[in-house]
Design brief:
- With 209 residues, the chain is α/β, with parallel strands linked by helices.
- It has one domain: Rossmann fold (3-Layer(aba) Sandwich).
- It contains 9 helices and 5 strands; from the N terminus they run βαβααααββαααβα.
- Strands 2-3-1-4-5 form a 5-stranded parallel β-sheet, sandwiched between helices.
- The longest helix has 29 residues.
- The C terminus is likely disordered.
Length: 209
């Protein structure tokens, strides 16, 4: 099984790329989905979040109010670090379980979507890393126009992550996502061909030994 880490800064297009990779046969394990599961109502992680930041981060039904929490943590790096320390272990447990299940099924290519892959020092856990990237100005426009977040808050969200140029230097593959949907599909096809080609080669070598 080839285990790929897919990462990219906010609004780079990780979700779109993961959907295209799924269409091409990859098994997708998305950290954002796992994170939402980890903080569901009644979960230990949500209890810890409320204990630290109070009931103001809950909506009227007692679920996590992500917008309210975002206003808190992106104003203070210590708060953001504290949130990651609460949620990350829960996400890691779920991701490990899904990877194990994929390996048991005999899945050939598994892609783990992890926004903070480099920030959390997870690169060594994967056979290769795919970075989705777009210019900062493009990502800022996407956050403001597509997520109804004001520009000042969007800039804080961008500033909280490692600069893209540092990530590009460490990634095995880079998917550029500043153009059209067709452009993105071509980029995904290019990288998928390289990943599948590498996988076929490694499988052939293992069979020959």
């Amino acid at each position: 099984m080839r285990l790929i880490g897919l990462t990219g800064n906010i609004a780079s297009g990780k979700t779109a790329v993961s959907e295209l990779l799924a269409e091409r046969g990859a098994t997708i394990i998305d950290a954002d989905v796992l994170a939402r599961e980890a903080v569901m109502k009644g979960s230990p992680a949500l209890d810890r979040i409320v204990a630290k930041w109070g009931d103001g981060v809950l909506d009227a039904d007692g679920n996590l109010d992500r917008a309210a929490l975002r206003h808190v943590v992106f104003d203070n790096q210590d708060d953001l670090d504290a949130l990651n320390e609460i949620v990350h272990p829960e996400v890691l447990k779920r991701r490990d379980a899904e990877i194990s299940a994929a390996r048991s099924r005999g899945d050939k290519v598994v892609v783990a979507v992890i926004p903070l892959l480099f920030e959390r020092h997870l690169a060594e856990e994967f056979d290769s890393i795919v970075l989705v990237d777009a210019p900062r100005s493009v990502r800022l426009d996407r956050i403001v126009s597509e997520r109804a977040i004001d520009e000042a808050e969007a800039m804080k969200m961008i500033a909280s992550q490692m600069p893209s140029d540092l990530k590009r230097a460490r990634a095995d593959y880079v998917i550029e996502n500043a153009g059209s949907r067709d452009d993105l599909e071509n980029e995904v096809d290019r990288v998928w061909g390289e990943i599948v080609g590498d996988e076929v080669s490694s499988l052939d070598a293992a069979t020959a030994t």
